Amino acid sequence: MLARLIAQKLGDKLGQPLVIENRPGGNGVVATQAMLTSPQDGHTIMLATADTHTVLPAANPNLPYATSQFVPIAGVASVVFSLVARPKLPITNLAQLIELAKRSRPPLTYASYGVASASHAAGEMFKLATGVDMVHVPYQGAGPGLLAVTAEQVDTMMVPVAVANPQRARIRMLGVASSVRFPLVPDVPTLEEQGVPMVADAWIGLLAAPGTPPAIAEALYGAVAEILASPEFASTLTTNGFTTLGYGPERFSEFLRSENARWGEVVRAAHITTEG
After folding, report:
1. Does residue 46 carry a pLDDT above 90?
2. What is the DSSP letter of 190?
3. Which InterPro entries match (predicted)?
4. What is the pLDDT of residue 27?
5. Element (H or E) spanning 244, and its range?
6. In the structure, what pLDDT confidence band is assigned to residue 276 with cuts at 50, 70 and 90?
7. What is the three-class DSSP state of 193?
8. Is the dihedral of CA 205, 208, 209, 210 positive or negative?
9. Which residues pair with 71 in a beta bridge?
């Protein structure tokens, strides 16, 4: 959705159409490899995510490329995660969940939308921040994972707010894993407000092929920045569970380094690998 929204508006700004080419496979590996041989002219760009270019590389050091090879264009947005619980779990708030998780035998379970995904890493981040033990249950997507929570098949999940919010009547949303409350669910406190020191926002941004000149990256960012500055676009992002980043090439590059370090620490501490 975000790729198509950006492409339409960016095409208007640049005076030429942008074609969305979906390259599924390997949690972004197939698409990223295709970028390696793309011309260095800025005509082929990639909508990358924390899943594909931060968490996955930390979990799989044998990827056929280094994500640092790619040229940052713009940090576009961040996905806001929420911690949800199945409706019949005998808790009503975050403190009770932590207490229950510490004494449960067998351990409670948490779903994610895939092994070595940001959802998986966010679940492990929660465990590290609280000292609880929960068993990871991966699903093929956020929708199936949340469905398992509503069906009482798994206890909890770190899931994007936009996916969880329409199911508020069928789940318990215990907190948002962001630094501030999110406008889409203003009644839901952050995890930090409730004593759990963690932020699990997952970035989304535009990258160019290795070797793309900085001037081209800056020119593309100039057009993207105009889009991000639009109140209409910002409202669309919020409605769909995103916060705006708006970072240019230099700041986005610095941000990626800090995010790689932050998420990489969690991946290593939790021993997350692509094998599960």
Report:
1. yes
2. B
3. BUG (IPR005064), Bug_dom1 (IPR042100)
4. 82
5. strand 242-247
6. low
7. helix
8. negative
9. 208
Residue 107, classified by CB atoms within 10 Å of its CB into exposed (0-12), middle (13-18) or buried (19+), is middle
Structure tokens that stand for 77 in this block:
């947005």
Nearest Cα to Cα of residue 119 among 161, 157, 64:
157
CA 196 to chain centre: 19
Alpha helices, H only, the chain: 2-14, 29-36, 50, 56-59, 94-103, 118-130, 142-150, 161-164, 214-228, 231-239, 249-270
pTM: 0.94
Domains delineated in the chain: 2-76+202-269 (3.40.190.150), 81-194 (3.40.190.10)
Measured distance CA(212)–CA(149) in Å, rounded: 44
- Rounded CA-CA distance 150/169 in Å is 10
Least confident span in 9-18, 165-174, 178-187: 9-18
| Element of type H or E holding 208 | strand 202-208
Hey, what are 17's tokens? Answer: 């159409």
Tell me which residue of 256, 270, 273, 271 sits closest to 129, measured CA to CA.
Answer: 270
Look-up: residue for tokens 């230099």? 250
CA 121, 126, 127 angle in degrees (round to 5)?
95
Structural tokens at position 40: 């260095």
Tokens of 115: 């092994």
Tokens describing residue 226: 């105009």
Helix (H, G, I), strand (E, B) or coil at 89: coil
